[in-house]
Design a protein that fits this description.
The chain has 308 residues and is an alpha/beta fold. The chain contains 10 helices and 6 strands; from the N terminus they run ααβααβββββαααααα. Helix 3 (78-100) packs across helix 4, helix 6 crosses helix 7 (218-231) and helix 7 crosses helix 10. Mean pLDDT is 87; it is low at 1-16 and 18-22.
């Protein structure tokens, strides 16, 4: 009997609760409001300099859906985001526009750059500098380290700008694939993730590769050849070829130079691909990139001006 009384009491309480709720007037307006930060001077500058001329968005505020949940990511510093946005615009977007025309840049350049504060480190010891997704987006990592390298062209290239050029090559390749003859130059030289091992960390030039990472796979090799050439002055590129040169016991260059030949053939194919497919002269892109990078590191280009 006591159990029945208790059950009836609970049912009465629940019924009373429903009755009380039914007497409330419900608003048609949701209590969940989407967060929208007020536009800053930087946001307005981005709209004027990226969105309007190129339909490119720079996403510098932290957003979970633009991160890789496999890593611990942190927000990008706002002041360094301003500087990096200027650098991307001046040394990459406008360099391609100068050399290849604004129609090329508008059509092929990625439409979203996502900035994150820290680099991402893999369990195999690799450090990820950036990624490209679906031919439309590039994630740039390590923004919070920019101040330490912005006045050193080699470091600026290594951590940021080469990444952009490298990933842009992949995006261009998704539009029109590179010639299959490229992979036939060093077909047995690709070693997948073993490129990280000590065995493949040196001497890769004499095996016909411009970087250790080039040995990972064919498509990465193509992107490395193009991106490395674009950021290399004549002296820097010749230094790569010098490392690829085999010398005899007397220090004289050997008659057969497979490494040099392979690198030169790869570059020739890459240049032909860009010229015949997109009417783009890689030498002109290279000249524009290097000149603009020099202006950045010597301080003649303002990285903080938001008044234009």
């Amino acid at each position: 009997m006591k159990k029945n009384i208790l059950a009836l009491s609970l049912l009465a309480a629940v019924a009373a609760g429903f009755t009380a709720c039914s007497d409330d007037t419900l608003s048609s307006e949701s209590v969940i409001k989407p967060s929208k930060a007020a536009d800053t001077a930087f946001d307005k500058w981005l709209y004027k300099n990226f969105v309007v001329p190129y339909n490119i968005q720079i996403q510098w505020r932290y957003e979970d859906n633009e991160t890789d949940m496999s890593y611990y990511d942190v927000p990008a510093d706002s002041a360094q985001s301003v500087q990096l946005a200027h650098i991307v615009k001046y040394t990459c977007v406008e360099a391609y526009t100068e050399a290849a025309g604004i129609d090329f840049t508008r059509r092929y350049f990625p439409k979203l750059f996502s900035f994150l504060g820290e680099f991402e480190f893999g369990n195999n010891g690799s450090m990820k500098l950036g990624t490209a997704e679906g031919g439309k987006k590039i994630r740039l990592l390590g923004v919070n380290h920019l101040d330490k390298v912005k006045n050193n062209r080699t470091a600026l290239d290594e951590y940021y700008l080469k990444t952009i050029h490298h990933e842009f090559v992949h995006i261009v390749n998704q539009t029109k694939d590179y010639p299959r003859e490229f992979g036939k130059i060093t077909p047995t030289g690709y070693v997948n993730d073993s490129w990280l091992s000590e065995k493949y960390g040196t001497g890769y030039e004499q095996r016909g590769f411009v970087s250790a990472y080039s040995q990972k796979e064919e498509r990465e090799d193509f992107a490395e050849v193009v991106s490395t050439y674009i950021i290399s002055s004549d002296a820097q590129w010749n230094a790569i070829l010098k490392k690829a040169t085999v010398v005899d016991a007397n220090g004289a260059a050997a008659a057969d130079q497979p490494g040099v030949t392979a690198i030169e053939k790869k570059l020739e194919i890459a240049k032909r691909y860009y010229k015949e497919t997109f009417n783009v002269d890689l030498d002109k892109v290279r000249d524009a990139v290097i000149e603009r990078e020099n202006n950045v590191v010597n301080g003649s280009y303002n990285l903080t001006n938001l008044n234009y």
